[in-house]
Design brief:
By secondary structure, the chain is α/β, with parallel strands linked by helices. Strands 3-2-1-4-8-6-9 form a seven-stranded mixed sheet, with helices on both faces. The protein has a three-stranded mixed sheet with strand order 5-10-7. The chain has a two-stranded antiparallel sheet with strand order 11-12. α3 links the parallel β2 and β3. The longest helix is centred in the middle third of the chain and has 23 residues. The chain is globular, with a radius of gyration of 21 Å. It starts with a helix and ends with a strand.
């Protein structure tokens, strides 16, 4: 029994380290395009009343950047008055930052992206979210990809509330950023974030399907399926974290709605590894009641995952504590279980819209 347990742990350890740490990563392919026009920056928003003060502050700073800038703030049928407040404010910046309203029948980020993309089919599209913070070095790196082909993916850093929920999300983001980087630099795609991505022409617009989430992922899949390269830029965007565990579970269950529609083999392999990790954890807890040696193997698993977390933590700008890297492996399986249970709920709402989690 001990030999079988040792074999399983060695096999798991090799897979985990291979996936996240030491595998050589080839450079992404850079192909020139005939289009070298300056990019268009899109911010699609809905009911962002609480973020309006921060947006105003950001826009004042962005307007002064001595760089080519054409930004469109696209209102997705807001109902909280945020669109009116931003419209009045942006009149002084209209030569560089414009507010437009999605037409009737064009709802949600996916449809708006396609609608705006058709208007700027020969331009690169910088895409982010209205609750983010952006820096001039980040935008300068975006401009670096003028004339390229493919899709540019970037990392995130978490800003927002305090407490264990925030600490967990920051540590989780360390792993998510590594997945974004690994998938992009290998050119096979693993994860993308709509808060920090750039669509280079020609954009292979996908069939969005009926899922409520996944504009970033399905765009990445479409680029990969067409043989177009993926690029990774190291400059992060700061994004606002869910305020509490309930909001976190709500967000993650929306993300989970697209799992059954994912097609990339790299995503399936990673999902299988995470599932294997969680099963090892819960199986080990149950087995430990009858076979004390199981606790030794659980300790080995915890040490391995903690070491990987610490390794990745030192290579990212995320503001995490070393203790979080040790606690995260103990919390992660329970959080994943909670997300799975929460996702069973058929109907949920987001910013005043109801939707089915399974996309039906």
């Amino acid at each position: 029994m001990e030999v079988i347990g040792l074999f399983i742990m060695c096999f798991y350890g090799i897979l985990w380290v291979k996936f996240l740490c030491f595998t050589p990563i080839p450079r992404s392919v850079y192909r020139s395009s005939s289009c070298a026009k300056s990019p268009v920056w899109l911010l699609i928003f809905r009911n962002e009343k609480e973020n309006v003060p921060q947006l105003k502050k950001q826009f004042k700073e962005i307007y002064t950047w001595d760089l080519p800038l054409e930004m469109y703030l696209v209102n997705d049928h807001s109902t909280d008055g945020s669109e009116k407040e931003l419209d009045d404010f942006l009149k002084s910046f209209a030569d560089r930052i414009k507010l437009v309203h999605a037409p009737h029948g064009v709802n949600g980020k996916k449809q708006i992206l396609s609608w705006m993309g058709k208007q700027f089919s020969d331009r690169a599209l910088i895409v982010s979210d209205a609750d983010c913070l952006w820096s001039k070095p980040w935008y300068q790196q975006c401009l670096h990809y003028q004339g390229a082909m493919g899709m540019v993916l970037g990392p995130l850093v978490i800003h927002g509330n305090k407490g264990m929920c925030l600490r967990f999300q920051r540590q989780e983001q360390v792993l998510l950023n590594r997945m974004i980087q690994r998938g992009a630099e290998r050119g096979k795609g693993l994860m993308a974030s709509a808060a920090n991505m750039m669509l280079l022409p020609p954009v292979p617009w996908p069939d969005w399907g009926t899922t409520v989430s996944g504009d970033d992922h399905f765009l990445m899949e479409s680029y990969v399926s067409k043989g177009l390269p993926l690029h990774f830029m190291h400059q992060p965007v700061a994004t606002k974290a869910p305020e509490n565990w309930q909001a976190y579970l709500h967000q993650r269950s929306r993300w989970a709605s697209k799992i059954g529609h994912m097609k990339l083999n790299t995503v399936r392999r990673w999902g299988s590894l995470v599932l294997f990790s969680n099963l090892l954890y819960f199986f080990g807890l149950g087995l430990g009641c009858f076979w004390p040696t199981a606790w030794l193997f659980l300790g080995m698993k915890w040490m391995l995952e903690s070491a990987v977390n610490l390794y990745l933590r030192e290579r990212q700008a995320q503001d995490t504590q070393w203790l979080d890297a040790l606690i995260y492996p103990l919390m992660q399986p329970w959080i994943h279980l909670a997300v799975a249970i929460h996702a069973v709920k058929k109907k949920q709402s987001w910013k005043g819209r109801s939707y089915s989690v399974n996309g039906s």
